[in-house]
Write a structure and sequence with these properties.
The protein has 287 residues and is α/β, with parallel strands linked by helices. It has helices spanning 3-10, 16-28, 30-41, 54-59, 100-108, 131-145, 156-166, 183-193, 198-212, 221-225, 246-254, 275-286; strands at 61-67, 72-79, 85-89, 112-117, 150-154, 173-177, 232-237, 258-263. α2 packs antiparallel against α3 and α6 packs across α7 (156-166).
Length: 287
């Protein structure tokens, strides 16, 4: 399999039945197709835990905590025994053990990690979630188990960390890997994958803004980055088909103190286990 096909294979394919349903609803009612798209957009896919994560799952102490601000419970993973703690945040449809390769290396350095399954992810209950709930979970974890020395996030987890720092999460440095940026771009990309008209994306954004009472662009990573002054390491693959590499450049432009690492041929998920990437994270943390 060529590198490009391998990277393409990492991306999530939308089942045909969903595409047909979306098209049908678009023809009969804008209101219905927006409702359908909103449900899909906020419903993560629960994947089986892969073998490489078994040990972290087995070795970590796990507990359920309540996040009052969103009225939901999440599963928390305590991995390692050190008082020097690092927060790990998975991406959309991920799990608290997803950053295992990074976590193992951090344990070797004498840190412990705290991670979680966001609402409706992994072992946490529920069927739907949104970035607002990721941010609320991070802030609650800091309250209960902080302070954290560093925070490392993948994809939506990276966006959530920048937003949480803006909302007063205290860490010395942050690492974001394959992070998305502009909310409208994420919505437009989703609508394109559903093969729906561009206008549906605008309507979907309006739907969320009405529901949550806040402009969606407020949560764009480059927007949050303007209020982040700590050092941030941005890592992104130039062949990431899930999140375009332009997101990394946009976030970098808006940070006061940042480093940028652009990789090749790793895609959106393989990047988490790459030795060079992990070594760069360790170097950044140790500097």
């Amino acid at each position: 399999m060529s590198k490009n096909k391998e990277i393409q294979a990492q991306t999530l394919k939308i089942p045909k039945v969903i595409l047909i349903t979306a098209k049908f609803l678009e023809v009969i009612s804008t209101k219905l197709v927006v409702k359908f798209a909103a449900k899909l957009f906020t419903t993560p896919i629960k994947h089986k835990i892969p073998k490489r994560e078994f040990l972290m799952d087995k070795e970590s102490f796990q507990e359920m905590i309540f996040v009052p601000s969103i009225n939901k419970e999440i599963i928390v993973y305590h991995y390692g025994k050190s008082d020097k703690k690092i927060l790990l945040v998975h991406g959309w449809s991920g799990r608290g053990t997803q950053l295992v390769k990074i976590a193992d290396e951090l344990l070797n350095l004498g840190y412990s990690t705290i991670s979680f399954d966001a609402p409706a992810h992994g072992k946490s209950k529920g069927n739907s979630s949104i970035m607002i709930e990721f941010i609320a979970s991070i802030l609650e974890l800091e309250k209960q188990f902080g302070p954290f020395e560093f925070a490392i996030g993948h994809s939506l987890g990276g966006m959530s960390i920048l937003n949480a720092i803006r909302e007063n999460l205290k860490v010395n440095k942050a690492v974001i890997i394959g992070s998305g940026d502009i909310i409208q771009d994420i919505i437009d990309d989703f609508i394109e994958k559903l093969k729906l008209k561009h206008e549906i994306g605008i309507k979907l954004r309006d739907h969320f803004e009405k529901k949550y009472g806040v402009e969606m662009n407020y949560y764009s990573a480059s927007n949050a980055a303007k209020e982040v002054s700590i050092p941030v390491l941005i890592i992104h693959d130039e062949n990431d088909v899930d999140v375009n590499v332009k997101a990394a450049y946009q976030i970098n432009e808006n940070l006061k103190n940042s480093e940028l690492m652009i990789t090749k041929n790793l895609g959106h998920r393989k990047i988490l286990g790459n030795t060079e990437v992990i070594m760069q994270i360790i170097k950044f943390i140790n500097e």
